[in-house]
Write a structure and sequence with these properties.
This protein is an alpha/beta fold. β9, α6 and β10 form a beta-alpha-beta unit. It has 4 domains: 358 residues, Glycosidases (TIM Barrel), CATH 3.20.20.80; 52 residues, Oligo-1,6-glucosidase, Domain 2 (Oligo-1,6-glucosidase, domain 2, Alpha-Beta Complex); 30 residues, no CATH class; 75 residues, Immunoglobulin-like, CATH 2.60.40.1180. It binds alpha-D-glucopyranose and calcium ion (CA). Calcium ion (CA) binds next to loops. It holds the Pfam family SusG_C.
Length: 583
C-alpha cells in the first residue's frame, strides 16, 4: 500500500483539487515498465459538442483548449479527440475528405497546434481518431477513382461489376441498405460498409497502406500520442465475393474478414508506424469474437495495443435502435470476460459511453430521480476499478442523461433518419413505437452540447448550438458540480485519484464474488499487496452482501455514500450504494 490514507476524506472537499493535476508519465511503483496507456485514464471529446470557442454554435479547438484545465483537474491523463478532419459531414466527420486538414468547423491547424501544446504543458496526452476503413466520397482519391476504370486510383477502392443488373452481392451496410452503390459513369459498383458517401478503402493495395501510414506519421510528428482506429475490424474484405444467407442478413452479419488478412494489415501497420515508438493504438473492434479480440490486441502479436469491445453495449440495444432490457447478469458476464486475466498479453478497454451510444446513467442507473446521482457514482466506481484502460465520455463525469426526444426532426443522426425511412415510412413500425425506442437508444443522446453551467445554452456557446441542449442543464452542469463536494463530478475526481493511489485497481486480478445475484454485483481485485472488494448495489432496494468467508474490512477506500465503517461480516447496502474496501 502506498500513499496517504484518504479513506476518511476521499469524498470530502479537502481532497478534491489537492491531487487534481496529474502527470501522464508517472507510473505506479508496482508496474514500473507498464506502457503509459495502461496506467492512464482517457477522456473522449466529441469536438462538435464540447465547447464553442468562436461563437458559431459549433464546438471547436479554441473551445477545447480553453477547457483543458478542467480536464487536468478532473485528473485524466489522455484525451481521445473524436473525428476532427475536414469532412462534408455526412456522418459527422467519419467521412474524411482530407486527413491532413482540421475540419474548418473546428478551426485551423494553428488552433489544433495550440490545443496540443497546451495539453502537453498540462501533462495530458492526445490521441486522434483515424477513419481508415473508408474515406468520404469527396476525398480526392475517390474522385479520381470513380473518374474512369483505368485511373491510377481506381484500385484504392473496391469496384466490381453487377450481377444480372443487381449489386455484386447481397451485403448490407451497418446503417441499413445495400453495401454497393452503382456509379453510372463507369458502370461498376463500389463497396461501402457505411453510407454510400463513405466508400471503403482497398487495404490490399500496398499504395493505400503507404498513404495511410504517411498520414499517421504526419500526426505523430506533430506530437500526438496515438490513434483510435475507427471501424478497424471492417478493413479486410473476403478474398472472393459471395452472398450471405437469408438468415444472416437480418442478423446484420458482417462480410468483413476478421482472420488472416486483418492481422496481416495490422501487423504491417505496426511495423511501419508503431514499432520502437510508444504510440498507442486502440481499435474500434466491432463484431469480433473474444478470441479474435485477444489475438488482435495481444502485445506479442504486434497488431493493436488495445481495443473497444461491444458485446455488452449491444445487449440492450437491439438492431442498433430497439431498446432492450438491461440485465445485470450481462454486465457481470461481460466484465468477467473482458478482464482478460487469462490473457496477460491483452489489455482491455473499459467504457460505458461514447459518441455512438446513449447515456449510461439513463441505461443502467436508477430511473428514480432521487437515485440518479448515486447510480452515476456507482457506475464511476465500477468503471474505475476494473482491469484495463478506462475511457470516460464527455459529460459522463457530471452524470449527463438522455435527451427527452419527442419528434423525429429533433434527431440529427443519419442512422436515426435511415431507420425512420426503413421502418416507419415503409409501414413496419408505428411512429410512436419508433420514437420511444430511438429516444432511448439514439447516439444523439451523447451528442447534445456539454453542460458547462446554468447560463444560456449551458455555457456551450453564446449562440444557438448546432444541436439541442438537454433541458436539465440548469441542475446538471460542471460549474454547479465543481463547487459541490457531493456531486457526481467530485466523485469522479476522487475515484480517479483512488485508482492511481491503488495500482491493484488497475493491474490486479479480477474475481467475481456475486455470481448469481440479480441486484448486487461484487468482485475482488488482488495483487501482491492488496485484496480489494468492490461492491455495487444495482437496485432501488436495500441489500445485504455477506463478506467472503473469514474476511473483515480493513479500510474503506471509496464510497458513494460517505460511508466510514463496516463492522460486521456482512455489508448492509443502501439502494445504488457502491463501496470499495480493502479486506
Ligand atoms: C464508427 C464511429 C461512428 C461512425 C462509424 C463509421 O462506428 O464511431 O461514429 O458512424 O464508425 O465511420
Ligand atoms: Ca465554433
Amino acid at each position: 500500500m502506498t500513499g496517504i490514507d484518504l479513506s476518511r476524506r476521499s469524498l470530502l472537499p479537502l481532497a478534491v483539487g489537492f491531487w487534481a493535476t496529474t502527470s501522464a508519465s508517472a507510473s505506479p511503483p508496482t508496474q514500473p515498465r507498464a506502457p503509459w496507456w495502461k496506467n492512464s485514464v482517457f477522456y473522449e471529446i466529441y469536438p462538435r459538442s464540447f465547447q464553442d470557442g468562436n461563437s458559431d454554435g459549433i464546438g471547436d479547438f479554441i473551445g477545447m483548449k480553453d477547457r483543458l484545465e478542467y480536464l487536468a483537474e478532473l485528473g485524466v491523463d489522455a484525451i481521445w479527440v473524436a473525428a476532427c478532419f475536414d469532412s462534408p459531414n455526412v456522418d459527422n466527420g467519419y467521412d474524411v475528405r482530407d486527413y491532413r486538414k482540421i475540419m474548418p468547423d473546428f478551426g485551423t491547424m494553428e488552433n489544433f497546434d495550440a490545443f496540443l501544446a497546451r495539453a502537453k504543458q498540462l501533462g495530458i496526452r492526445v490521441i486522434l481518431d483515424m477513419v481508415f476503413n473508408h474515406t468520404s466520397d469527396q476525398h480526392r482519391w475517390f474522385i479520381a477513382s470513380r473518374s474512369s476504370r483505368n485511373n491510377r486510383y481506381r484500385d484504392f477502392y473496391h469496384w466490381h461489376d453487377g450481377k444480372n443488373g443487381a449489386p455484386p452481392t447481397n451485403w448490407q451496410t451497418q446503417f441499413g441498405g445495400s453495401a454497393w452503390t452503382l456509379d453510372e459513369k463507369t458502370g461498376q459498383y463500389y463497396l461501402h460498409s457505411f453510407e454510400a458517401q463513405q466508400p471503403d478503402l482497398n487495404w490490399e493495395n500496398p499504395e493505400v497502406r503507404a498513404e495511410l501510414y504517411a498520414i499517421l506519421k504526419f500526426w505523430a510528428d506533430k506530437g500526438v500520442d496515438g490513434f483510435r482506429f475507427d471501424a478497424i475490424t471492417f478493413i479486410a474484405k473476403p478474398e472472393k465475393l459471395y452472398d450471405l444467407t437469408p438468415e444472416e442478413i437480418p442478423a446484420r452479419k458482417t462480410f468483413a474478414d476478421h482472420g488472416d488478412r486483418l492481422s496481416f494489415y495490422l501487423k504491417d501497420m505496426y511495423e511501419h508506424v508503431f514499432k520502437n515508438t510508444d504510440l498507442y493504438s486502440v481499435g474500434e473492434n466491432w463484431g469480433v469474437s473474444r478470441d479474435e479480440y485477444a489475438r488482435i490486441t495481444d502485445s506479442r502479436n504486434k497488431e493493436l495495443s488495445s481495443g473497444f469491445r461491444f458485446d455488452f453495449q449491444i445487449k440492450d440495444n437491439v438492431d442498433a435502435w430497439r431498446k432492450g432490457t438491461f440485465h445485470l447478469s450481462d454486465l457481470r458476464a461481460f466484465n468477467r470476460d473482458n478482464s482478460f486475466d487469462d490473457h496477460p498479453g491483452t489489455w482491455p478497454v473499459v467504457w460505458l459511453e461514447d459518441h455512438d451510444y446513449s447515456r449510461s446513467v439513463s441505461r443502467y442507473g436508477s430511473q428514480r430521480p432521487e437515485y440518479r446521482d448515486r447510480s452515476a457514482k456507482l457506475l464511476a466506481t465500477m468503471m474505475l476499478s476494473l482491469r484495463g484502460t478506462p475511457f470516460i465520455y464527455q459529460g459522463q463525469e457530471i452524470g449527463m442523461t438522455n435527451f427527452p426526444f419527442k419528434s423525429i426532426d429533433q434527431f440529427d443522426d443519419v442512422f436515426a433518419h435511415n431507420e425512420w425511412r426503413l421502418q416507419v415510412e415503409s409501414g413496419h413500425i408505428s411512429s410512436q413505437e419508433m420514437l420511444v425506442n430511438l429516444a432511448a437508444t439514439t447516439r444523439d443522446n451523447t451528442r447534445t452540447p456539454m453542460q458547462w453551467n446554468d447560463g444560456p445554452n449551458a455555457g456551450f456557446s453564446v449562440v444557438k448550438p448546432w444541436m439541442l441542449v438537454n433541458p436539465n442543464f440548469r441542475t446538471i452542469n460542471c460549474s454547479a458540480e465543481s463547487s459541490d463536494p457531493r456531486s457526481v463530478l467530485s466523485f469522479y475526481k476522487a475515484m480517479i485519484r483512488t485508482r492511481k493511489q491503488f495500482p491493484v485497481l488497475i493491474h490486479g486480478t479480477y474475481k467475481d464474488v456475486s455470481p448469481d445475484d440479480p441486484q448486487i454485483y461484487a468482485y475482488i481485485r488482488e495483487d501482491s499487496t492488496n485484496r480489494v472488494l468492490i461492491a455495487l448495489n444495482f437496485s432501488d432496494d436495500e441489500k445485504t452482501l455477506p463478506l467472503p468467508e473469514g474476511k473483515t474490512v480493513k479500510r474503506i477506500i471509496a464510497s458513494n455514500m460517505d460511508r466510514t465503517q463496516i463492522q460486521s461480516s456482512s455489508m448492509h447496502m443502501q439502494p445504488w450504494e457502491s463501496v470499495v474496501v480493502i479486506l
